[in-house]
Amino acid sequence: MDLSGSDALLLERIRAGDAQALADIYDQHAGLVFGLARRVTREEQLARDVTQEVFTYLWEMPGRVDLSRGSLRSFLALLAHRRAVDLVRRHEARARAETASAMPEVEDGPEADVVEAQLQSWQKKKLAELLGKLPAEQREAIRLAYYDGLTYVQVAKTLGIPEGTAKTRLRSALGKLRTLLTEEAREVTT
Questions:
Q1: pTM, to two decimals
Q2: Interatomic CA distance for residues 26 and 54, integer angstroms
Q3: Domain range holding 73?
């Protein structure tokens, strides 16, 4: 059986809007995509999310598949691995940020509520101030990814830019925020 010919035919059908072609590809490759995503994320729900994202991407961007570089199976496996790794990194970054911003416990009582509210207000103002120092396109990418919870792909689609550009904007913004926070910490401690 000529798999590359079969893959090419299925991709042509998807380009033509044939949902059954996507269903056929899903039936053939969902186990591989889910299994890979499950191994990387180690969570069933995250693996399901990656699987859905991979097949949604295929449906929306079938032209991105280049069968001269490999099979549809290898394309889907590579895409699943990349998306799963991105998802794990994003979750780890959020967990680190939450741990770093965790406030020390204050004894219970009315004063504790006031102190906690003041501290949260100060953190929000400081973060808004630091975000305001970023270029507008980086600030928007951060808002979409970290406040709206979008993936790199979704950020790229929302902003109408290539996925690589979205990743670069987010990495650059996070690097700039890290530098600004380091400078702030130095000023406070000196």
A1: 0.51
A2: 10
A3: 1-102
